[in-house]
Structure formats: C-alpha cells, structure tokens
Amino acid sequence: EDDFPTAVDVLTDKVLDGLLSSDFDKSSCLSRYQSVAYRKESAHKPSSHLISRLRSYEALHRRCGPYTQSYNKTVEKLISGQHTEISECNYVVWISFSGLGNRILTLASAFLYALLTNRVLLVDRGVDMADLFCEPFPKVSWLLPSDFPIANHFNNFDQKSPHSYGNMLKRNPVTQLSTLQFSYLHLVHDYDDQDKLFFCDQDQTSIQKVPWLIMKSDNYFIPSLFLIPSFEQELNNLFPEKETVFHFLGRYLFHPTNPVWGLISRYYQAYLAKADEKIGLQIRVFDTGTGPFQYVLDQILACSLKEKLLPEINQNEDVGSFPLNQKTKAVLMTSLNAGYFERVRDIYWEFPTVTGEVIGVYQPSHEEYQQTEKHVHNRKAWAEMYLLSLTDKLVTSSWSTFGYVAQGLGGLKPWILYKPENQTAPDPPCRRAMSMEPCFHAPPFYDCKRKTGVDTGALVPHVRHCEDMSWGLKLV
Ligand code: GDP
After folding, report:
1. Which of 76, 170, 180, 390 is 20 to 30 A from 91 (CA-CA)?
2. 375-389 and 258-267 are packed helices; what angle lies between their axes, rounded to 10 degrees?
3. Does domain 258-475 have CATH number 3.40.50.2020?
4. How many angstroms separate the CA atoms of 105 and 405, rounded?
5. Tens digit of each residue's pLDDT (9 = 90 or more) over 166-222
6. Which residue spans adopt a coiled-coil conformation according to this UniProt entry (predicted)?
7. Which of 397, 402, 440 to mutate to test the pocket of ligand 1 (most atoms within 8 A of CB)?
C-alpha cells in the first residue's frame, strides 16, 4: 500500500479547504502539507468568511510584522512613551507560559482575539516555541524579536503588576487608557474581578486604544469572547458551527516543525498506519503520589469496555482456533507513567478477545514527571498530542489541556474519564463529550451590564458548563 503521498501530490489540492495559505516554502515545514495524508478528511468545512479573514490577517501581519517600518515606529513610540497619531498596527503579545497543552490553547485564544480586534499577534518564543511550531503566517515571522523593549519584564508580570489592566482600574477607575503605550492583561487562573473586566464590552472599548497589549494566560478563554456583545456577530460569521473554533484555529496555527514531524510520522507508520481501527487513550492523573493506581486502571478498562471501544477478553483457557480475517485495533496510550500501558498490553497478550480482534497496545514515551523547560520532553509531548489526534476514537482525562488539544485537532468528540474522587473509580467511568471544544477552566461569572454575578453557562445555548468541570465553560 502506498498511502503516503509526497508533498507535491497534496499541493495540487487547495490546502485544507483553503484554510491554509499556499504562499509558503514547502520544505521548511513538511507537516503543513503531509498531514492530510495521515488524517481522515474533516467532517467540517471552514466558512468562507473565516478563510477571507485569515487571508486579510496574513496581509496585515505582513505590513506590521517584526522589523517592518510600522513595527519599528510603534516600538519607538513604546520606548519614548509619546502618543502620536493612531497607527494601522496594533499588537497582542502572547507570553509563553505554563504546560504545552495550555500554551497551545491560549495561543489560539490570543489569535482569535487579535483577529476580532484587528491586532497583530506576536509570540514570545520562550524556551522552545520556535523549536516546536512552524511559522503559521507566510513571509513574515510571528515571533516577537528578542530585542523587544520590555521582553525581559515578561517573567515579572503577574497578578500584582502595577501595569496590569486590573490594577490600573483599582488605582484609578477612570484611567485614561488612551494615553498608554502598553497594558498588561493578566488572564491567568488566579486573576481577580478587575482583571476579569477584560470580558466586558465597555472595557474592550477602552482597551482598544492601547497599541501594545501584553497577554499572559493559561486558559482557553474563547467561550467568554462569545458572550461579549460587540464580538457576537463576527464570531457567528466566522464560525457558523460553534464547536469548530479550536478545530480550525488549531489546524491553521499549529504545524509541527520537521524534527517533531519526524517523531510523529515514524511512529504513525511503524505502529498505527496498518491497523483497521485506531483508539487513543490519554491518561493524565492529577492525584498526588506515584502511580500507577489500580483505581485508574479499573476506570480505563471499565470505560473502554462499556463504551465498546475495546473488546472483552475470553478468560477460558482452551480457546484454540482463531477466526480468519481478524481485524486489528491499535491502541495508542499516552501517560507520564508506563504502568497503565503495560497492564492493558498484557491483558490483550495473555488472553484472546471474544471477537477475535487482535489488539496492539503502544505508548511512545513515559517521561515520569512534567519537565516544562526541556526541549526533547516538549517535542515528545507535542508529538503525542498530535498522534492522539490521528486516532479514530479517543478517550481523554478530565481537566487535561493535553487531551483538549488532541480532540480539537482531530475533530474528535472524546469519551471523558470522570475525575476520580477519594481514590476510587467513578461510576459511570466516563461519558461522551458534547462537543470537541476545550473547556475554559476559570471563566468570569459577571453580568457586565447589570454589574452583578450571573451564571455565564446559562445565558446562551452554545456556551455551556463542561462535562469534566462543573464551573468551566465550553462551546457546543
Ligand atoms: P495538562 O496539565 O494536562 O493540562 O497539559 P499541559 O500540556 O499543559 O501540561 C502537562 C505537561 O506534562 C505536558 O506539556 C508534558 O510536558 C507533560 N505530560 C503530561 N502528560 C504527558 C504524556 O502523556 N506524554 C508526554 N510526553 N508528556 C506529558
């Protein structure tokens, strides 16, 4: 079988239904063109409005990107503090922060915010952003130049920063933002009521006047953008199907660099490509103590069997004959720990399945603990999220952004393993997700007009509370 077309074959097609620009150097990022050969065609089509807004964003990025005349000018103004005429070029700078799954979700959120507010997104490269992701926009980099004036302050920006939007409001509620060259937006889970006013229309009107917004977040905050009235119409036009927001933004923005693509494509071809069906099991355990835990293994098996993702085994020792034309299933497991994988693999080695199916169980790595600052570690984490997104059916763990990235890129509605309480496997063990969208873990609960608390998960039908976190919000 020769299922893997070369980059050239694929190029004759419009790239992902026109989602991607065709204006790229092909060899610098093989995944951008080769990934279509590894994925089933998406069941969803990007709206023509999204496609045209992406092309006009790319043009804006080209006019305003790093070291363009306009960029140099607004940087000068930032240094001098002078506020002169309004420039065409305004920016959102995304600060590299938190685990890789979180970073992918916040970067998608920052990009959509930039799109909605006609800003240019620039990416703080952190330790390894350039090592993990190809440039998503043609001809001009999305990486913030390392000589950007306030880049060395990024690590110090936090909830208490005097430059944060929330703290400026506290000091002076009628702050004249129009005199500011930059403002720091603190959208991290520990943010307070003032920081959260970012999600109010009135505040958006004043924030809009600031040329440089510096943003730090560890949350997928897009669901709350859908509750801001002035963004509503545009978001409707961009995404007539609400649950495809991260699916399309993710496929547009995040292309593994060639070394990461090597990890993905070699693994896929060696272990997954030939199977009749591919099942992903993403295991992320937030409990303290070293696993593997028996209750987690019980839960994984209970969910997989109950939902018929994996077949039952036949414990009767004398089954001798095997049905012909056996179907094969490849199970791709990801976890920091090898224990769950070893047990599942052994079960399907030691016993035959009642259906006669042959089950292969694979896990690319077991890194034992989170190592956010290490290159090879994050390459593997990215490769594994991507490999999970190439499966046909996916089981994910509650609360994990690692799993959210896989489900969104894959266009998969996962079965979510409920979070275990008191070291026991929950019953039922899992449920099917309402949509493939990620969950916003720390949303505001505020009615900006009435200035009172409100249940933001009950305002419109397409923004609901999440399956895995009762106070979270997700698009459905
Ligand atoms: P979250 O904590 O599950 O929301 O996901 P994040 O990706 O934000 O942070 C977890 C980090 O731990 C990842 O970025 C990896 O560095 C590491 N990690 C967690 N689970 C796995 C896994 O299954 N495989 C690998 N390779 N790394 C993992």
Report:
1. 170
2. 50
3. no
4. 7
5. 999 998 766 677 778 999 999 999 999 999 999 999 999 999 999 999 999 999 999
6. none
7. 402
SS3 for 80-125, per residue?
HCCCCCCCCCCEEEECCCCCHHHHHHHHHHHHHHHHHCCCEEEECC
Residues 146/127, Cβ–Cβ less than 8 Å: no
| Domain boundaries for CATH 3.40.50.11350 within the chain | 258-475
Closest CA to 106 of 428, 361, 401: 401
pLDDT digits (tens, 9 = 90+) for 342-355: 999 999 999 999 99
Q: Give CA–CA dist 352/340, Å, rounded.
A: 19
Q: Which of 265, 284, 262 is nearest to 273 (CA)?
A: 265
Residue to mutate (ligand 1; options 337, 370, 382; most atoms within 8 A of CB): 370
DSSP character string of 259-283: HHHHHHHHHIIIIITT-SEEEEEE-
User: Alpha helix (H) ranges present in 254-338?
Assistant: 258-267, 294-306
